[in-house]
Amino acid sequence: MRLLLVEDDALLGNGIEAGLKQAGFTVDWAKDGREAQLALDTTDYELVVLDLGLPRVSGMELLQQLRGKGSDLAVLLLTARDTVRDRVAGLEAGADDYLVKPFDLAELVARIRALLRRAHGRSVSAIRYGDMVLLPDSLTVTRGDEQIVLSARECAILTDLLEHRGTALSRARLEESLYGWNEEVESNAVEVHIHNLRKKLGNDLIKTIRGVGYLIRKDAP
Fold first, then answer.
1. Tens digits of per-residue pLDDT, 128-147?
2. Is 0.85 topped by the overall pTM?
3. What is the distance between the alpha carbons of residues 15 and 179, in angstroms, rounded to a whole number?
4. How far apart are CA 57 and CA 55, in angstroms?
């Protein structure tokens, strides 16, 4: 899942970016409000981690612009402002959650995962499909007593296909979820990950729709 981090503090931004990538997310890091505006106008994200105290365009302005356009993109605010008035202002402007600096990275990851579950209509992290249970947080699939370990990118693709089951996702769409700004995309990376998922989970799970992309059927067989 591709997230946008908007943070002007280099030390903090580096730590957050590294921690989110280790947790399995694809992260683009914008260091000021204008850069974030461009990113949001050109890229689809699942969630934004947004600092309020930004140069050029403030985090609050960015949030108000998003909501003014009718976007329901999940937004988690980061700020050093810890008064009740500040928290209320951020939430009333359209933020989905609020975390005061300094914070523990594990709590940030947990809050992001909770917001993403809510955005996809799930109350728990597990995604069930037929006799298969995907646990994105631990990069595993269980089937009965069998536990299958996935790579971070295999898990990201499977999660994306399951959350959009019944809809074919193109290779370009899947690549956007897997690779951030500074990562080189290998020409056949998605095909390799799909091949590995089929080896681990069976050839019938992920369908190839020629000329369109990849699909998991809406209803499990």
1. 999 999 988 788 999 888 99
2. no
3. 19
4. 6
